[in-house]
Amino acid sequence: MTYCLSLLCREGIICVSDSRTSAGVDNINIRPKMRLYSVPGERVVCLMTSGNLSVTQTVIALIEEDTVRARTDPAHPHLLTQPTLFETARYVGEKIRRVSDLDRVALERDGFNFNINVIVAGQIAGGAPELHYVYPQGNSIQATVESPFLQIGEYKYGKPILHRGFSFETRLSESVKFALLSMEATIRSNVSVGGPFDVFVYETDSLQIRHRRRIEENDPYFRELAGIWTGGIISLVEKIPTLTFDPPPS
Amino acid sequence: MTYCLSLLCREGIICVSDSRTSAGVDNINIRPKMRLYSVPGERVVCLMTSGNLSVTQTVIALIEEDTVRARTDPAHPHLLTQPTLFETARYVGEKIRRVSDLDRVALERDGFNFNINVIVAGQIAGGAPELHYVYPQGNSIQATVESPFLQIGEYKYGKPILHRGFSFETRLSESVKFALLSMEATIRSNVSVGGPFDVFVYETDSLQIRHRRRIEENDPYFRELAGIWTGGIISLVEKIPTLTFDPPPS
Prior knowledge:
Two copies of one chain form a homodimer.
Chain A: E1 3-9, E2 12-17, E3 20-22, E4 28-30, E5 34-39, E6 43-51, H1 53-72, H2 85-109, E7 116-124, E8 130-134, E9 140-142, E10 149-153, H3 159-165, H4 172-189, E11 197-203, E12 211-215, H5 220-239
Antiparallel strand pairs in A: 1-2, 1-10, 2-11, 3-4, 5-6, 6-7, 7-8, 8-9, 11-12
Helix pairs in contact in A: 1-2, 3-4, 4-5
């Protein structure tokens, strides 16, 4: 399983991904799911993937093939030559459709789903920071000010904390805490989601990869965050008045 | 959709259920999912159901048929004559198997799942308070001190708050707040779960139905609980230190 999320706020973008890959509970591996690309001063693109590992790796391989080919054929389009982030998401969608053409029949014949979801986050000079969600069919949707986050994989456990406290106006430094708390809620409830976590914090208009970090589950900061949170929640519940009941029926 | 949960603590049991029933978003109805039965001084049994509404109602109808029949045939076994709460759960499981015999083939022929889950919570004199989860196959599991809560229906959104703060040792008055916060997290994230909510608080060894209440979504207490919670969470996140990053690569 997987959990990746991306938050869009006025000050920038937060991306957090887990790295647990499993083909059943007896075969768990660590594979990062976040990839960062940039042309400093011009664009930053973050890709996060969930789904069948073979499908996601093949999509990434096709994307990287284009990049390699562009070294000898500079006119060849690739991930970092798209005019907008929307077109970048559509480009990723085209690669998904290519892999669908290659592998879907063989996968489905043996009962596997053709399953991949991709978050494309970033900014291209002249545009605003954006988040796009690319589906297994290659189509995409985009986060908005009203719906400012995207999640892929095991999204339910980590959603309430975002609904409670995160909005487009949340400061970037606070947003990263909401993202990590969302991840922490998920790993507590689903053992097939786990660390280390990749964290990327992008500041609007920086057009560079400045703040990225890999956090282990036993990282002192991550443990402190979880500890303050759990202790604080219990105190907070104590502050809520007690529910009263109607007198029992006589 | 449905969300019902039951918490087991040293001081007693909390049961909370929603009442939204839908056959698609264009056909939403209100139907309570909690039913309380008692023989005061001897036993209290709370049933909460999720799944196909026809299946759950037919199971309840069969249970109530037994009760009616026992009025003229006092030797006829029914829900409130079982020797233990485990046997009470098995009795409910037998009714589920009866409905499976009656309706499963016809349902599955038209693509419907035979889907029902039941929580059986309560206490019988001589035993401890217990929670049992009865599956569509009629078998059951039981909550324990280590795993002291059961959920049916849309359980994921409301699970992290329970993992964070609730344990078997949590006071009864605090436990009811955790249960309501779990419900509140769920209705925020899934519109097919909704109020009014039925709340039942059972005190160990009382062997009576003393504390029950129906709460509307706009109930002043429920709104206060949600307000304190959301405001408190934002303050709590502010108390967490800011994540630091490695210096950017030069």
